[in-house]
Amino acid sequence: MSQQSRPTRPRDAEATRARLLQAATEEFAAHGIAGARVDRIGAAAGANKALIYTYFGNKEQLFDAVMDVHVTRVLDQVPFTPEDLPGYAGRLFDFLLANPHQLRLATWHRLERSGTGHEPGGLRDSMRQKTEAVAAAQAGGQVPDTLGPEDLLTFTLALASAWTPTSPMAPASGRDAREHRDAVVEAVRRLVAG
Questions:
Q1: How many CB atoms lie within 10 A of CB 105?
Q2: Residue 46 in 3-state DSSP?
Q3: Is residue 38 part of a domain?
Q4: Of 18, 41, 111, 127, whose CB has the highest number of CB atoms within 10 Å?
């Protein structure tokens, strides 16, 4: 088949960018930044790896873009309810179980990107707003103030992620995810009850 008779595929920069982000999510979750390979990302996305540099700059900036997408996703899909921290913990547990790459990516970010000046989009503001919301709920008497708002939020987040696939205990548990979810919600309920 000659070059002239080969059908041309219309270029769709947004679709290509989306495929690169999806392929990069898989690659970074499995290998981190140092172990990730742009040639594998390009091949998995069905795109020339040079487009990674065109769209994102370099591998670290591609990772940052992946983190921004995933942080925005969890912030959008898991509504924070300071007056119902057990319910929030249950929803976050469900989200993390359905999206196992979320915590892997966050772990790689802490290991390989901390101190670089890049904070995933909206994360710092979200944590500040959540802490302020817990403090306001405590001031309004909706949540006991036996623990400080930062501690209460941190413990809630930790409990919600305790039984995800990245947990060292999860594979050995043998219990159903629903049982773990119930335990997480109950643990946060007791934490909030003081």
A1: 23
A2: coil
A3: no
A4: 41
In a domain, 29, yes or no: no
What is the tens place of the pLDDT at every residue in 9-19? 557 889 999 99
42 is a domain residue: no
Going by C-beta distance under 8 Å and a sequence separation of 6 or more, which residues neighbour residue 65?
21, 24, 56
- In contact, 47 and 16? CB cutoff 8 Å: yes
Q: Which residue has the tokens 């057990």?
A: 86
- Of the CA atoms within 13 Å of residue 23, those in its CB half-sphere come to 23
* CATH value at residue 87: 1.10.357.10
Backbone angles phi, psi at 175, to 5 degrees: -90, 155
Task: Show the tokens assigned to 110.
Answer: 């802490």
Q: At what angle do helices 177-193 and 149-160 cross, to 10 degrees?
A: 170
pTM score: 0.83
Q: State the residue range of the domain holding 170.
A: 64-193
pLDDT tens profile 92-119: 999 999 998 998 998 899 899 888 887 8
> What angle separates helix 85-98 from helix 101-112, to the nearest 10 degrees?
90
Which tokens hold the place of 38? 């742009």
> 113 and 28 in contact (C-beta within 8 Å)?
no
Is residue 6, in this structure, part of any structural domain at all?
A: no
